[in-house]
Amino acid sequence: MALNDDIVLLSNVPLFADISEDKLRLIAFGAERRRIFKGQELFREGAPADCAYAIASGSLSLSKAGFDGSETTVSTVSRGALLSELALISMVERKFTATAEEDSEVIRINRPLFRRMLEEYPEVAELVEARIRENLQAMIRRAGALAGRFA
């Protein structure tokens, strides 16, 4: 795919939605495309995460290991989804296993590349911080809605 196609894809990823095309070009140019085949794991739950992946084509199932060792699919994601976005900011562990449901392509965005963009464009850092804050607040609201179940 062409660089411009990757820029369009990244502009549709919620974390990058309001970032200008010239700034997304830095990410698209430095990112790495990777093809994964049906049934192949992109990453495994518990592994260290040093990058995020934007799904360019295809779909991936996200699963978690149960206490008995079985895998349970919790979601299926497709084009435009960003996996492990917190890995762009800090070292974290993968919270699930991602497996290709069909032949797929992803764009691998590594942490040093993302940090470079944040350093060169402080306004992007402010935008990303606001998006992460919104995501955390939404997660806290969802957890609060469940509090009654555990009281």
Question: Any overview of this molecule?
Answer:
With 151 residues, the chain is of the alpha+beta class. The protein has one domain: Jelly Rolls. The protein is 36% helix and 31% strand. The chain has four helices and ten strands. It has helices spanning 3-11, 21-30, 111-120, 122-146, and strands at residues 32-36, 41-43, 48-49, 51-57, 59-65, 71-78, 82-83, 92-93, 97-100, 104-110. Strands 1-10-4-7 form a four-stranded antiparallel β-sheet. A hairpin with a 5-residue loop joins strand 5 (59-65) and strand 6. The longest helix has 25 residues, at 122-146. The protein is globular and about 45 Å long.
Describe this structure in a few short sentences:
It contains four helices and ten strands; from the N terminus they run H-H-E-E-E-E-E-E-E-E-E-E-H-H. It has 151 residues and is an alpha+beta fold.
